[in-house]
Amino acid sequence: MILQLSITEYFSFLEWIKFPVIFIIYKSKNLPIKTVIKKTLTLFTPVFLIFVLYSIFRLNFAKIFPILEADQPVLLQKFASEPFQALISLIKNLILDFSYIFFNFIGKVISIDLNHFFRSFHVLIAILLMVLFFIMYSFLSNVLKNESENPDTKSEIEMLIFAILWIILSILPFWTIGENYVNAEDPPHADRHFFASVFGAVILFSWIIRFFIQSGKKYVVAVCILSSLFASQFFEENDMAKWQTEKQSDVYWQMFYRMPSLSNNTAIVDDTVIFPFQGNFSTSSALNILYSNPINENGTVPIWVFDAGKIRYEQHAGFHTTKRNFQFIAPTQQMIFIDYDNQFANCIWIFSPEDIDHPHVSETQKTWIAHSAISRIGFDSQAVPSKNIFGSPKQNWCSLYQKASLYRQFGKWDQLNKLTQIALENGFSPSAVSSNSPFEWWPFVEGLIRNGSLQIAEDLSIEAIQTDPAYKDFYCTRWNQLLEDSAIMYNTNEICGN
Hints:
The chain is about 60% helix and about 5% strand. The protein has 20 helices and 8 strands. The termini are far apart.
C-alpha cells in the first residue's frame, strides 16, 4: 500500500474500498452485526492510519518540495470556506463524470473508424475480435451452465454498491483538486485519473446487462459483444499512440536536421502547443535529450518549449518557467519561432525574421517571426540523437527541406544544389502531394538562382505559384531582391506578371 501511494497517488482513495469489502466478507459469515463492525474496524485500522499519514504528507507536499508543482485540494478548501457551494460542486462533478461513463464513453466504444476500416491493421484486429468473441462465448457458456437463471438478489445489490463506490473513490482525487474528467484542461493526461474507475465501470455495465437480460445465453452474447467492442477501442487507442509516437519522432528529427545544435537558454516558441497530447513539459524534456547541451551552472535547463497563444511579441515579458524539478529562464529575444501544424505546410516551419512576408501566418505570428533568433542555431551537431529514443530518421521531403533551409542559412550553396538535385531526382516538385508547399521550395529556388540555374528556378517558382497563388508576391519580391543583390539580369515577368 505504501509503495502504491508513493507511485500512483490518483489511486489513493481506492484504499477505502477495502472497508466495504471487509465488511461484506465478515457479514457473509452470519456473525452478529456488532462483531462484524468490530472485526472490520480492527482489520481496516492499519489501512486508515497509513492513509491519514499519506494525506498529511500530500497536503504539505508543496511546502516540503517548494520547487515542485502540486495540485491544491481545492474541494477541501472550499468545504472549509463555503461548504454548501463545495457540496454543489461535488454533486455536479459526480453527475458529469457518471454521465460520461454511461453515455459518452459508450458512444466512443461502439464507434468504428470507418475511414481506415480496410487498412491491414484494422482487418487483422477485426479477425482477432471475432476469435475473441467465440473464445469468450465458449468459456462463459460453460461457466454459466450450473448457475441459476435467477441470480441471488443480495449478491447483485452488493455488486452494484461495490461498483458505484469503486467509481466514486477512483475519481475522488480528481474532484478533490476541483476538476472533473469531462471539463479537464488536459484530457489526454486526465485519463490517468479516469483509468482507476475502469474496473468499477466494467462491473457496473455487467450488472446493467444482467438486470435487463435474464437469459443466460443472451447475457453471454451481450457481454461478449461489449467486451469485443472494448477490446477494439483498446487496439484503436494503441494504434493512435503508435502514430503519435511516429509523428513526434519525425518532428524531432526534422528539428535536428534544421537545428543541429542550439545555444543554451533558447526558447522554442509556437503559437499553439506543439503536441497537445503530451504538453510543453514532455516536449521540452525530449528536446533536452535531443540536444546534448549541459545543464547551466545555476541548475536551469538549456532549452524549453512555449506556446505564445494570442500574445504578441512586444507583450511578452521573457521566459520563466518551473516544472517539477526543472527551471528555465531566458529573455524574450533568445527565442526561435516555429509553426508545427500549419494547414499549408508539409513539414515543421522554423522561421527567420525575413519570413514576415509569409502569406499564411497571422499578424500575431509575424510579431514573433520578426525577432526569431536563428543565430542561436549551430551548423555542426554536438552528438547524433539516439535511435533507441527517437527512432530511425526518415529520408523524405521534410528531411530534404530542413537540410536545405540549414544550408541556405549558412550559405552552403554547393551542398544545397546537390540536395536540390536529389529532391528533383526523387520526383519531388511544388505540385506533388508530399511537397506542395511553396514556402518549403524557396531554399531550393534561391540555391538554383545563386548557382545560375535560372530557368529551372523559374519553372519551379511558376509551378509553386500555380499550386498556391497566395505566394505570388512572396516569390516575386524575393526573386527581385535576390537578383538585385547578386547583380544578375533576368526577366521576372513570368513570375511577377498577371
